[in-house]
């Protein structure tokens, strides 16, 4: 049994027990930090790369709740005010899908990317492929950034892909031929294999 499988983030101190003595450290100090980091990525403006929404959320949440007892549900509701259109996977203006998977359940997904690049008659390039996931329960979904590396140190965002049990198929067009297509180049995800 891995420490992460000892329970979900919301259990807090109860994660350290005789079966998983390091459970609290593994889940709260490691996984919970990644959850906030991933939330920041979900709130990032895809056009500008700005993290302003995430930091505005944190400032507002602290200011509005100073001296109060707050719950995870209070934080979930606060985040929904700042969510981006691409992160609305359920089309209900809620982020429950994200918190249910990362805070209330166990499991850390592993991702595998398969892609191909084809030159088009317009001298642009078609980048298409599929991202599959494993290591998580049925119904788990995540929004993953797909990046094209076009030069030695040049990367460009192709877009975000919703990955579910069926995978995440994508088709993007780019002006330059990617030398490599990748996911999670900014280390947004808790675990990622490419």
How does the overall form come out from the CA principal axes? Answer: globular
Q: How many separate structural domains?
A: 2
Largest sheet: 3 strands, antiparallel
Number of helices: 4
Topology order in helix (H) and strand (E) letters: HHHHEEEEEE
Strand order within the widest beta sheet: 1-2-5
Question: Helix proportion of residues, in percent?
Answer: 25-40%
Q: By helix and strand content, what is the structural category?
A: alpha+beta
What's the mean pLDDT score?
Answer: 84
Give me the count of strands: 6
* Strand composition percent: 15-25%
Features:
4 helices; 2 domains; alpha+beta; three-stranded antiparallel β-sheet; 26% helix; 194 residues; 6 strands; globular
Offer a concise description of the structure:
With 194 residues, the chain is α+β, with helices and mostly antiparallel strands. 26% of the residues lie in helices and 25% in strands.
List the helices and strands and how they pair.
Elements: H1 23-43, H2 52-65, H3 72-80, H4 96-102, E1 110-119, E2 125-134, E3 142-149, E4 155-163, E5 168-174, E6 180-183
Task: Summarize the structure in words.
- This protein is α+β, with helices and mostly antiparallel strands and 194 residues long.
- The protein is globular and about 60 Å long.
- Strand 1 (110-119) and strand 2 form a beta hairpin.
- 26% of the residues lie in helices and 25% in strands.
- It has four helices and six strands, in the order ααααββββββ.
